């Protein structure tokens, strides 16, 4: 209960109340209970800094299934997760011998994602709206807004604080598009949440269906290696990335979003989500305990 109260005291004014959050009111306690029922003996500790992590976030929910215990004492932590849900986060790091997670992930804006993506994949995500001819995606540079829309370039007066991206047509069948949310630990894709959306809702956080997939079933060896390099360059030790495959053109993938304080996809069947959280927790525990 303390974790819930600490989080709401710290960031309550920034919370957006929606259906997914309300679903979490019963799903998260159930998932916590499932983890506690089979929790092994303690193996290590983790602290969150500078912001407390609500129990419904992926990482604390996954670690309930492991021997990693949560602590508020930075001096006693084996690992410290730099946990800040702002798009850009430049915090003064504690002096510590603990393993720091996401300490280099200071900027996960869409603009920065585009720069790192092009450096790794050698083809552009971000477009120049003043010169690009044809459809493109306009969206806020700030994470979590879900305000994307398709516009046609060139545009004489681009919107301030927006980025313009390649329109990846991830249509898998009539009226349905596919998103791949990849949860990454130290560059490895531990699980993939394959989300189907109605085409008209492709930029929203509402899904027709969400299934759990193995990374090798949806991404090639080469693509997974490039994703690992992307995570290293942007500083993501733990988090999720959203990947779209352009099925209408050349089949290339695009990393369109990075979330370093990700939450689980609560709309999917809880048994599948429980399985995914176990896999994520096991991977993160191994990273924390690595010599």
Explained architecture:
The chain has 7 helices and 13 strands. It is an alpha+beta fold. The protein has 2 domains: 2-105 and 275-289, no CATH class; 110-259, 2-Layer Sandwich (D-amino Acid Aminotransferase, Chain A, domain 1), CATH 3.30.470. It is globular and about 60 Å long. Residues 11-18 have low confidence and may be disordered.
Mean pLDDT: 91
**Low-confidence runs:** 11-18
Which overall shape is indicated by the principal axes computed on the Cα atoms? globular
- Helical content (DSSP H or I, runs of 4+): 25-40%
User: Which CATH class of the largest domain?
Assistant: Alpha Beta
Largest sheet: 6 strands, antiparallel
- Give the topology string: H per helix, E per strand: HHEHEEEHEEEEEEEHHEEH
Count of discrete domains: 2
Examine the secondary-structure arrangement and name the CATH architecture of the largest domain: 2-Layer Sandwich
Can you identify the CATH superfamily of the largest domain?
ATP-grasp fold, B domain
Please describe the structure with a list of short key phrases separated by commas or semicolons.
about 290 residues, alpha+beta, D-amino Acid Aminotransferase, Chain A, domain 1, 2 domains, six-stranded antiparallel sheet, four-stranded parallel sheet, 7 helices, 13 strands, globular
Q: Layout of SSEs?
A:
Blueprint: H1 2-11, H2 19-37, E1 44-50, H3 58-63, E2 68-70, E3 79-83, E4 99-101, H4 110-121, E5 134-140, E6 149-153, E7 162-165, E8 171-173, E9 176-185, E10 188-198, E11 209-213, H5 215-218, H6 221-234, E12 238-245, E13 253-259, H7 270-289
Parallel strand pairs: 1-2, 1-3, 3-4
Antiparallel strand pairs: 5-6, 5-7, 8-9, 9-10, 9-12, 10-11, 12-13
Helix pairs in contact: 2-7, 4-6
């Amino acid at each position: 209960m303390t974790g819930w109260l600490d989080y709401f005291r710290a960031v309550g004014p920034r919370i957006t109340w929606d259906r997914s959050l309300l679903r979490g009111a019963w799903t998260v306690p159930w998932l916590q209970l499932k983890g506690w029922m089979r929790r092994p003996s303690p193996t290590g500790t983790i602290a969150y800094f500078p912001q407390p992590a609500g129990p419904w976030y992926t990482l604390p929910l996954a670690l309930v299934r492991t021997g990693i215990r949560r602590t508020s004492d930075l001096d006693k932590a084996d690992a410290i997760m730099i946990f800040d849900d702002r798009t850009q986060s430049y915090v003064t790091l504690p002096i510590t011998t603990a393993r720091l997670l996401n300490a280099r992930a200071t900027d996960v804006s869409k603009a920065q994602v585009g720069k790192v993506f092009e450096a790794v994949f050698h083809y552009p995500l971000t477009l120049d709206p003043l010169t690009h001819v044809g459809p493109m995606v306009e969206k806020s540079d700030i994470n979590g807004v879900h305000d994307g829309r398709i516009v046609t370039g060139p545009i004489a007066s681009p919107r301030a604080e927006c980025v313009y991206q390649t329109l990846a047509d991830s249509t898998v069948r009539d009226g349905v598009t596919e998103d791949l949310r990849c949860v990454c630990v130290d560059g490895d894709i531990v699980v993939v949440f394959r989300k189907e959306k109605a085409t008209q809702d492709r930029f929203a956080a509402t899904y027709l269906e969400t299934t759990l997939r193995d990374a090798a079933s949806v991404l090639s060896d080469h693509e997974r290696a490039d994703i690992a390099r992307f995570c290293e360059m942007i500083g993501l030790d733990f988090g999720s990335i959203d990947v779209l495959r352009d099925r209408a053109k050349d089949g290339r993938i695009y990393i369109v979003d990075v979330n370093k304080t990700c939450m689980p996809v609560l709309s999917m069947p809880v048994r599948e989500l429980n399985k995914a959280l176990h896999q994520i927790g096991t991977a993160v525990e191994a990273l924390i305990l690595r010599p």
